[in-house]
Amino acid sequence: MIPARLALGRLREGNLRFAEGRAGRWLERCGDRIRDVAEAQEPFAVVLGCSDSRVPAEIVFDQGLGDLFVVRVAGNVAAPSQVGSVEFAVERFGVRLVVVLGHSGCGAVRAVLDGEVPRAAEESLRAILDRIRPCVEHVSVSLSGEPREAVEEAVILANVRAAERALQTGSKGIARAVRERGLQIVGAVYRLETGLVEWLDGPVENRA
Question: What is the pTM of this model?
Fold first, then answer.
């Protein structure tokens, strides 16, 4: 399995190809790739992202079949099932890089921020939105009086970092891989307006 640094480089390069309109070269060999991965997979990175139809990880990173192990859920939250899915990929395939991918204009974040959660919402939906709520409450206090756009941006970033922390603290297997196998958990935000991914630098534990 390739080191986290090289895996991150492949994602950066792929996203630039996508944003510049040069993506999709892997499609030329898609027929062969289907047969190659039919019996086994060796993804080089895990992406925990939002279910938003505008942010398909394989496309925005210009990767092909079998390259990424993708976990998608509204609001890119890290509930137990998402943590377990990431842990599975880390343990089973030896992946060294996990990316938590948020995005601008996130509907789940906006729903909580604007108080638009229907009272009749099912418990399953509330379980997702309730994981975003602490980020909204913290940012709303710290940025009281700031423009709506600034608050939303801060909540999106805080929500990504919350998922990063949840992955590290919610799984002994993931934590062990960080300590012993060089696993890195990296946060990022996809910009709907440009197609570019912005990377959040620095160790998880040092982020606000």
Answer: 0.92
